[in-house]
UniProtKB/TrEMBL annotation:
Location of the protein in the cell: Mitochondrion membrane
High-level lineage: Eukaryota, Metazoa, Chordata, Craniata, Vertebrata
Descriptive protein name: Sidoreflexin
Residues that span the membrane, as ranges: 255-288
Protein topology in the membrane: Multi-pass membrane protein
One of the GO BP terms on file: one-carbon metabolic process
Gene: LOC110487787
Amino acid sequence: MTTEISTSINIKEPRWDQGTFMGRAKHFFTVTDPRNVLLTNEQLENAHKVISDYRQGVMSPGLTEDELWRAKYIFDSAFHPDTGEKMILIGRMSAQVPMNMTITGCMMTFYKTTPAVVLWQWINQSFNAIVNYTNRSGDAPLSVNQLGTAYVSATTGAVATALGLNALTKHISPLVGRLVPFAAVAAANCINIPLMRQRELKHGIPITDENDNRLGESTTAAKQAISQVVVSRILMASPGMAIPPFLMNTLEKKAFLKVLFTFITLFIQMCCLSFSLVFATPLCCALFPQKSSMSVSRLEPELQEKIRASHPGVERIYFNKGL
C-alpha cells in the first residue's frame, strides 16, 4: 500500500535509523542489492531527476513516498555521495556479489600454481582497486600519476603477499593451503585500501557539522574512515573464503569426485560464495555508520582551533567514511 507524498521527507539521510545496526543493515541490503546492476541508464537518470527535483521542491505528479524512496536508493546505488558522479559499474557495491563470487571462486580453486596465483590475485586486486577508488571518501580527484602509483603498489603488494604465503604453506596441511587465498586477501586489503585512498591520508577528507556545513578536511577522520573500511572488507570476505576450504578438503577425499574435481570445486565454491556474499556484504557494510562521526577534541590541534574559533558550539564532526 502506498502513501501520499510529503514535502518534508529528508532524503539526504537513509530511510532507516542509522544509529542502530538493524537500520544500517536494512539500508545496505537495499544499496547492495545485486539487481541494481541490471538497471538501465534511463532508469538511473530518471531516479537522478526525481531526487534532484525533490531536493529543489519540485515533485512529479502522482509521485508516492515509496516511489521517492525507491528512486533515492537507485540514486544512492549508482552515484557517489560526495561528488555526485555516476560510479563505475563494477565499482558499485551492488556489483560486489556477482564480481566477488566469480573472482574469489577462481582464486580459491586455482591456487596451487604460481601462474594461477599471480593471475587471479592480479585480477582480484585490480577489481579491488576499482572498488576502493569508486567508493573513496571526499570530492578531490586523484591525478593519473597518483592513481597509477597507488594501483601498481597495491597490486604488487597483494601478489607478493599471496606468493609468499603460498611458498610458506607448501609443506603444510592441504587445508592450510586452501586458506592462503583468504589470508592473502585480508593482508592485501590492508595494503590496497590505504594506497588507493592515500590522498585522503595526506590531505584529509571533508568534515561537516550535523547540518552538513563544511568545516575543513581532516587526516585524523581519514585514518578512522579507512581503518573501518579495512575491517569491514576483511570480515566481508570471511564467511565465503574461510568456510568452503573445510568443505572442499573433505570432498577432495571422495573418489567419485576426483575426475571432475576442479569443476565441481569451482561450482560448489561459487554457490557458497554467492549465498554468503548476499548477506555478508550488507551486514559488514553496516558495522559502522556510513556517516561516521568523532569528537572535535580528537581532531588535529590546528583544526580544533579553527573550528572552535569559527563554530564555537560544534562538539562533534561528521564525515563520509566511504565503502
